[in-house]
């Protein structure tokens, strides 16, 4: 992460709307949901616009690449070029202490007990089985553990995430359900002709807005924002230009990622956990740079991340996340992309008997894949313990 990183805290005045990838004219006329946390391009668009406004830029001249706007272009870029800016992460924060929340790693499952409390369990990697991919190791539930479901829309506190990374299970107080953070409200709207101000016939639409709870904010880590420009202001955010406040947060009041876990005697390898959605080449589930190795009976994949040579043995991956948006520079919709969702986990061993702790220290907090300037592919490392592998050999 950059040394000139700044953190901005967004707070909604009312509801917010970050439209899903389907267009309004999609077949069936169904209600369109909202994506939350906001997509990175939406956040960067708001920040870039705010910087331009603070600089007093002439947007008409800016769109033509005029030399008089060169200073602003160097800062915020144009189109897909972000200039000097880069996004390092988008996070929820909650409560008076503004503790950060992180997506639950998908290796964790839960079930409700008879007394209403929650029990948590971790997936393990099973013996090799024959699949359409060949003979591979797949994640499975521990023996005699039934009734558990994924936490694919829940969030962990910093301390809860630290426990999971260390090979442990969180407590119930470490986990927030989405319904504890925000509610969804259905809305009915109609298109307006901007030339006449009249409504357009047959242009009704339905959308679902997000209403955050009072003490929920969105924290955004961005590098490259000049000092003194965006200390505190009001801006429009997302679809329908909903009003939001944004303020610069002091570094002493921002929670950092949990520390890298310490390897134990029973550590078999490491687990790369995505904290933000990742974009891999050609829509693949496989991290960029990894290639299949079929020299052994059991299929696995070899690759390098941040200078560390790894062998990937298994993965727990959530449902593909679809993201589109509007290309302001070219006045047209963006092509919809498929992303590997946050929380996905990749089980790896370190090649050539290298030090696992050194590998974890080098990888923890890095990014993988493409579009990392948008904060995609932020990873942390978890411990893969011997007890979470039921086979005899990899």
Automatic annotation (TrEMBL):
Question: The organism's lineage?
Answer: Bacteria, Pseudomonadati, Pseudomonadota, Gammaproteobacteria, Thiotrichales
Tell me what organism the protein belongs to. Answer: Leucothrix arctica
Query: Which InterPro entries did the record assign?
Result: CRISPR-assoc_protein_Cmr3 (IPR019117), CRISPR-Cmr3_IIIB (IPR010165)
Q: Specify the superkingdom.
A: Bacteria
Q: Which Pfam families match?
A: Cas_Cmr3
Q: What is this protein called?
A: Type III-B CRISPR module-associated protein Cmr3
